[in-house]
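TICKET: design request
STATUS: open
ATTACHED STRUCTURE:
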């Protein structure tokens, strides 16, 4: 019996959606939602960053950035200061604690990518193209929903 790739993919997407709705620990005592961790990841990747640029990178409103950064500031994961170049701009950077979350999250992704890469390395070019075709079809299907 062959696996139902469509049903398994649907289950995987649902599982991912449910997992990202629940907060979890990322190397500190703080419970963090996926959106918070991804914001920390973006800040950590870019170093010091303005709220406007952060909103652009994440594809969210400045209001959403403001709400999330307020939570991250309360948890001691980021630091804010007025930009020395433009007094109306606010710059954000990771605190030491925020750097711990950033490093934990990056390591988590690295481990997952290494596991998947080992499987990818076993595929022939034709099989890899077929898998990529399935992913592309699912991506297109989600765009049409």
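STATUS: resolved
RESOLUTION: sequence designed for all positions
ATTACHED SEQUENCE:
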């Amino acid at each position: 019996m062959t696996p139902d790739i469509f049903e398994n993919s649907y289950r995987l997407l649902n599982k991912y959606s449910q997992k990202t709705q629940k907060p979890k620990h990322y190397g500190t005592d703080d419970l963090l939602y996926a959106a918070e961790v991804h914001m920390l990841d973006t800040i950590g990747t870019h170093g010091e960053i303005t709220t406007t640029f952060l909103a652009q990178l994440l594809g969210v409103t400045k209001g959403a950035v403001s709400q999330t950064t307020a939570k991250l500031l309360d948890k001691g994961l980021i630091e804010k200061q007025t930009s020395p170049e433009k007094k109306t701009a606010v710059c954000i950077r990771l605190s030491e604690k925020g750097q711990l979350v950033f490093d934990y999250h990056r390591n988590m992704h690295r481990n997952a990518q290494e596991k998947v890469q080992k499987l990818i390395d076993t595929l022939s070019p034709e099989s890899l193209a077929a898998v990529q075709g399935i992913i592309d079809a699912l991506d297109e299907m989600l765009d049409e929903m």
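CLOSING REMARK: The first strand starts at residue 24 and ends at 25. The mean pLDDT is 91.
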